[in-house]
Amino acid sequence: MSKKFYITTPxxxxxxxxxxxxxxxxxxxxxxxxxxxxxxxxxxxxxxxDEHGEKIQKxxxxxxxxxxxFVDDVAKRFLSLWEAMKIDNQGFIRTTDDYHVATVQKIFxxxxxxxxxxxxTYSGWYCVHEESYWTETQVGEEHLCPExxxxxxxxxxxxxxxxxxxxxxxxxxxxESHPKFITPEARKNExxxxxxxxGLQDLCVTRTSFDWGIPVKEAKGHVIYVWLDALTNYxxxxxxxxxxxxxxxxxxxxPETEIVHVIGADITRFHTIYWPMFLDSLGLRKPDRVxxxxxMMMKDGKMSKSRGNAISAYPLIExxxxxxxxYYLVSEIPFGENGVFTPEQFVMRVNQDLxxxxxxxxxxxxxxxxxxxxxxxxSFVSNVNPTDKELEDLVERTVSAYEVHQDDLNPTQATMDVxxxxxxxxxxxxxxxxxALAKDESKKAELESVMAHLAHVLYxxxxxxxxxxxxxxxxxxxxxxxxxxxxxxxxxxxxGKLDGHKVNKxxxxxxxxxxxxxxxxxxxxxxxxxxxTAA
Length: 535
Ligand code: ME8
Prior knowledge:
The chain contains 20 helices and 15 strands. By secondary structure, it is α/β, with parallel strands linked by helices. It has two domains: 4-293, Rossmann fold, CATH 3.40.50.620; 317-491, Isoleucyl-tRNA Synthetase, Domain 1 (Orthogonal Bundle). The protein is elongated, with a radius of gyration of 26 Å.
């Protein structure tokens, strides 16, 4: 039975066009999913949109359209971005989809029947932007939202509540027995100390003050709280409580499936406190990991739709190609940390890693095999040159470490290791000086070995980077004379795989960028048009 992997992004609010921050999270998940798939896992990658709630309704009004029309328009923009980014997702859920709406209503009824949800009155401080109620202490004397700093409003409403108190102890015990459930570790401590230990208040799970949400079947005028609606997407998208629930059985219920939610820090509380409780209530297993990634910032702070300082991925893709953008996103910011987008760093990454390191190794290798062996990759022999064995060991170590890092949700380190291997191979060229070997017929064996080693390193790098370089890895393989689909993850440690292949000199994978001109071009993209939102 093959191993299984289920990975999700947050479902984004379609309140305005997606920016590079959304592309960041979705691309990193795509890379993780593709790398598992490459290693033989059966994979389901889900992303989607969180389309209900007061904020969306207000944005629609500000734009003079119905909420449905508003989200339909924005959804198209998300879908085209995922297409442009070459996102290979198996599911795309919109919370206005009929199956989701019907299932959330069933989930609500189940929780109500079980007594986990009860009717009462809510009186509290509400932040429209965060869609959250806060306590007197949390909003302080100034009555500001502790999350976003905006003014909050006092609200009273008849509402249904979720009995959090019932599950709080179980949750702490679950954290203890599953130390990797929330990572990075600091996030877990924050949840425990700031929210759970001081005492969890029951969560208000319905609203009556607006109607853009899933109606509560049991009570007219109530809509289900956007977070109860949104979090359950992770199971409704798999067919939970629906006629065809084969994906749910395979990717959720099967204990062999690894379930990973990737989220930004701002929504940790919902995913690590409320979501596990909702699952408890439904008698379902919890995810294995909630991984909190960092934010892509701009020099003036967090990139966000409402701040209007967001850069879109499109112009970058148009000018530099999707592979360069995907590579930048995975390599520039260690997954789990915050990072700042700057044009200078973007250009530097592409130049140093892709043009000078990888591209250069490919050019030199293919040219030399062309020149010295008429394009035929010589048969692989070990231990001819002093550092042959070292390079082979590094190939093996890189493949093994790649798996460890990917499994540990550290695609940045996995990528850096591959680049180290490529650098080592460039250095191996300097050490072995093939141009000198070529002048001496008695050194033919050495020259053959150098070329065979270089070709193999390129094969390994091409395959390990293929979840990132989704179009260029094929071009790299073609230059090594591999047919479509001939590259195979299981062969990476099989030295000699390329014996007898004939290289094809192709165009440069990544042309070197002019730093000054391209920095200027990206700055111009960043000054692009801003959108109108109510937030
Ligand atoms: O919170 N850098 O939706 P949202 C990196 N609908 N990632 C960023 C980012 C940035 N500057 N800005 C946003 C919601 N993100 C809810 C989620 S899930 C059941 C419901 C990413 O549109 C990051 O992953 O505000 C963050 O958690 C997510 O987008 C929030 O998107």
